């Protein structure tokens, strides 16, 4: 026990925490009733409270470019100021409506990792469509005829979780699996579940000087389940689309669903990105983290 403690102390001494990349998706007041979706949501008040707390505790809020060029490679003692960069994945419109005003108010740099198919479109956000199906149906009937009965909220929560697990455990991409399993509900596919950002909103946020846009692929697939040419297309094409729209280089990437392997990482590196982030892993430590597998702190708002 004592040896473990000493080893930990020595490790911390040589690999001090340099800071945190916060991993967020949505900022809104109306939360999902299902934990799997609610975990992607925080309220504007919670975001503001967190920012105030960390500012008061002497953290530097800096851009992802500064994290990469100044902080990751620099040794800083544990008593020196740590960094925070706030990041959002996917590209929901509530970033613009609810988070951006707060970030502007406190002069906070932030990163949005965009899935380019989400912008200016109505993408099939399968986890939100599934939520709508489970909430409105007493019996969810899969394409195969298998029935999940969920007349009340308790059973709906359980069925939602089971169906998410079922989708993730299939070998295909989750969106394709969803389409295949839920062919009885195609009319739901067309319903608007959430607004996504427009290029106009993205350009405005970039012009403010606070926002850096990174890539989160084109279609938000599980990259580790795709053919190499498909992986390349997702990683290169999204970079090209954003660069063309913003007229600036895109240097940062995050892996959809946090699925990572070395082959995918190599393609990210070869495509000219400087960093790539996972959706978990905690704080960034000196001389420990692979910049193509950066850990992030997943911010979850506890229910009150
Ligand atoms: Zn994502």
Structure summarized in a few sentences:
The chain has helices at residues 2-14, 35-38, 44-56, 64-71, 94-105, 126-136, 153-169, 174-181, 186-189, 199-207, 228-246, 262-270; strands spanning 17-24, 26-27, 41-42, 60-61, 83-90, 110-114, 139-141, 147-149, 211-215, 252-254, 275-281, 284-285, 294-298. With 304 residues, the protein is an alpha/beta fold.
Model description:
The protein is α/β, with parallel strands linked by helices and 304 residues long. It has two domains: 16-121 and 199-298, Alpha-Beta Barrel (TIM Barrel), CATH 3.20.20.370; 126-189, no CATH class. It contains twelve helices and 13 strands. The strands form three sheets. Strands 1, 4, 5, 6, 9, 10, 11, 12 and 13 form a nine-stranded mixed β-sheet that branches. Strands 2-3 form a two-stranded parallel sheet. Helix 12 (262-270) links the parallel strand 10 (252-254) and strand 11. Helix 6 packs antiparallel against helix 7 and helix 11 runs parallel beside helix 12 (262-270). The longest helix has 19 residues, at 228-246. The two termini are 37 Å apart. Zinc ion is lined by residues 89-90, 216, 220, 256.
């Amino acid at each position: 026990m004592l040896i473990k403690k000493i080893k930990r102390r020595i490790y911390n001494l040589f690999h001090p925490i340099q800071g945190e990349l916060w991993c967020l998706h949505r900022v809104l007041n109306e939360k999902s009733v299902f934990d799997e979706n609610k975990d992607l949501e925080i309220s504007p008040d919670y975001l503001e409270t967190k920012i105030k707390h960390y500012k008061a505790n002497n953290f530097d809020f800096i851009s992802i470019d500064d994290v990469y060029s100044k902080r990751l490679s620099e040794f800083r003692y544990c008593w020196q100021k740590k960094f925070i960069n706030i990041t959002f994945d996917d590209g929901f419109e509530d970033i613009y409506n609810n988070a951006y005003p707060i970030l502007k108010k406190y002069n906070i740099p932030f990163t949005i990792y965009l899935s380019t198919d989400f912008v200016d479109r109505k993408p099939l956000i399968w986890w939100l469509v599934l939520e709508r199906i489970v909430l409105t149906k007493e019996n969810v009937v899969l394409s195969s005829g298998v029935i999940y009965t969920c007349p009340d909220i308790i059973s709906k929560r359980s069925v939602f979780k089971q169906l998410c697990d079922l989708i993730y455990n299939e070998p295909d991409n989750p969106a394709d699996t969803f389409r295949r399993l839920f062919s009885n509900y195609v009319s739901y596919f067309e319903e608007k579940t959430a607004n996504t950002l427009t290029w106009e909103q993205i350009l405005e946020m970039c012009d403010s000087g606070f926002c850096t846009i990174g890539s989160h692929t084109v279609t938000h697939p599980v990259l580790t389940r795709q053919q190499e040419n498909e992986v390349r297309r997702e990683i290169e094409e999204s970079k090209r689309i954003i660069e063309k729209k913003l007229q600036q280089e895109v240097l940062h990437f995050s892996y959809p669903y946090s699925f990572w392997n070395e082959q995918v990482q190599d393609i990210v590196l070869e495509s000219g990105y400087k960093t790539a982030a996972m959706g978990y892993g905690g704080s960034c430590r000196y001389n420990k983290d692979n910049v193509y597998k950066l850990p992030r702190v997943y911010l979850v708002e506890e229910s009150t």
